[in-house]
Request: fold
Amino acid sequence: MKAVVFHGVGDIRLETVRDPKIKDPTDALIRITASAICGTDLHFVRGTLTGLEPGATLGHEAVGVIEEIGKDVRNFKVGDRVVVPSTICCGYCSYCRAGYQSQCDVTNPEGPRAGTAYYGGGMQGFDGLQAEYARIAYAAANLVKLPDGVDDDCAILLSDIFPTAYFGADLAEIRPGDTVVVFGCGPVGQFAIASAKLHDAGRVFAVDCVASRLDMARDQGAEAIDFNREDPVEVLQRMTGGIGPDRAIDAVGLDAMAPSAGPAAKEAKKQRAGFQKELKELEPEANRRGSQWRAGDAPSQVLQWAVQCLAKAGTLSIVGLYPEGRIFPIGQAMDKNLTVKAGNTPHRKYIPDLVDLVETGAVDPAEILTQTEPLTDAIEAYKAFDRREPGWIKVELRPEAKRKAA
Reply:
């Protein structure tokens, strides 16, 4: 089968790899009908996340059709359309039963203390999903059946992006009437805006520097701030009467960029040495040259802005991905009595309810989907997505696989 394969920083290829097979009675084999490119995939290609071995298949978002099931998969049948939650769970450990499926004690090959297991991260037994077929372990707990009223364009956004954003809104503790700021207007940021509104936020601000992303945020009713034109902290203070937002959602993470123009660039220039130190310590393999696969240059920028802008006793929700290390302004957060929550999304907890929202028409996630490309064009799609080309918000990949002969 064809798959997108990682070979090193700045080196991904579309290659022929071995077809997956059923290994355990709890497995299912699916034919993938849609996958997608995520910012987390770019972290590996940019070198901001390490540990992925050459030869690993990328991708952790997929929709498909079940081709084969093991004898202990009792809630699905061959031919069912399903969405694959990005984080992997067993369904029976204490964390899964409590709704923390992203902290499953069983599925991570590094053991129960290792935390989240997910596809496309080089974990033994969990190949990526940017491919024509995939083996799904613990399929009874790790697949969600799709109704006919939810097509692939909507369903692919339920695999990771929408649940992550909704989880971020939950972590933020948004209450009716709250003022919320979302940092980052990529796919997760766009759904974070939508999720804040689903939580009955009174006002939502959106911070980014890409015009097409800010335009999409405005279309959702968010108040847009371009950090290359204005200082976001100053604007948020001014627009809230000096109080600041009640809640902030960090949908950016480690690839944050410092402002390159405008009044905020002056302060960022003063911090350049500190940002470079963060990069050296936290992201030693990050690519810092050229225009393709280039890492962000200010890992702690969003965290600083969020802590500075929030109202006293506000809440910061972090769903952007960060490496281990010391970049959080803990002293200022403590001084303001902020609540800080972060984590990897328990996708399996949220997906069924979000499927219902989409099926009833309460939310149309496909509005965020801006590109649909064949799997054969995946590498060029990756390059365009990495460059943040105008209009590229979320990219769907469509494998052209045919049903395998019995």
Observations:
- The chain has two domains: 2-159+345-398, 162-342.
- The domain at 2-159+345-398 is CATH 3.90.180.10 (Quinone Oxidoreductase; Chain A, domain 1).
- The first strand starts at residue 2 and ends at 8.
- Residues 253 and 320 are 4 Å apart (CA to CA).
